[in-house]
Amino acid sequence: MLKYPILFFLVMFMIGTDTFLISPLLPTLQAEYGVSTGIAGWMIGAYTLGSAMFALVSGPLSDGWNRRTVMIGGLIAFSVSTALCGFADSYWMMLLFRFLAGVSAAFTAPQVWASIPAVMPPQRIAKTMGIAFGGLAAAQALGVPIGSWLAAADWPVPFWSIGAFSLLLAAAAFLLLPNMKPSGRSRASIFSRYMPLITSGRARGGFLAYLLLHLGSGTAMAFIGKWMADRFELSIGGIGNVMMGLGFGTLLGSVVSSAVIRRLGSTRAVTAGMLLLALLYIVGPHAGLSSAVIIYFVIFTVLGIIFPLVMGLLTALNASIRGTISSLANSTMNGANTLGAWLAGLLYVHFAGYASIGIFSAVCIVLSLVAFRLGGLVTDKSTAAKRQSEPA
Q: Which of 22, 208, 233, 265 is most exposed by smallest CB count within 10 Å?
């Protein structure tokens, strides 16, 4: 069974690395294509735009297909589109290939979350969710240095490297994964696949809570580098080192997530974790540099524990539409992070700087906890066991 967690970890690591890859290359690519700073950022935005636009469609479609086929096809498309970025000889061609890479990721990543409950025994689902999320966390910590190191030879090398490795992962998925064909409703419309979620109080409460969780964490994340530069006068390199360390906090949290859940249970883990997050978001902006690094390392670790737990609870809502659920969760996350980045700018400039962001994040986390508890997604084991036997 170890083959599946390793495969899922590597798939998410590749997708995550490709997401973070462009950041260290942005100045080089800006000079390469002769574009202004104002539009250079779209080389990052094109990827997330493609992912966000197609996530809501890819999930419902994949629920009517063989998940193994969808994942393999997505990995091949992801490999080709990412490798083509290394051959882009103009700004607009780079935007096109980055957009296609995002579209491919929208079809690939949800299959990981949806496949875990299908191929893993129930007692190992939470641990495997944590391992898969650990791939994203590792990419967050290592994506920038990996991209910088590979680009030392030439800027296309990182794209070609990720493309080649992703193609190997497609071959591994072909050899290792079993067929995961839909049990029924294969011809159901896209909208009809969302109906069980729209009509379920637990699903509505769960996704509202997930939105608030990412809105709080995304708002704090958006301007943490700006805050560190303004308050502590850190250089870009210094901020990068701090962010890499915080990424390892997320990785640590994802590794210990299943053990924490077994010890505390879902309800206590989510409740204690979110209350701790709310407190630390308020305190963090007032701390000195060393204390702030420790505080935000703990924050990232707690998020690393909570995120795979919540994803596991969401995908358990309805086994027949796990792809739809995973894709909706991905769109919810991207939407919350986009809104959070916009709100962070307003709060930072017009209110009490990063302290106001900390208060806003804390409020979002508390409201998220309330939504989780009132919506019934986070329950004690006895209640959860009963509810898992019921339709969403």
A: 233
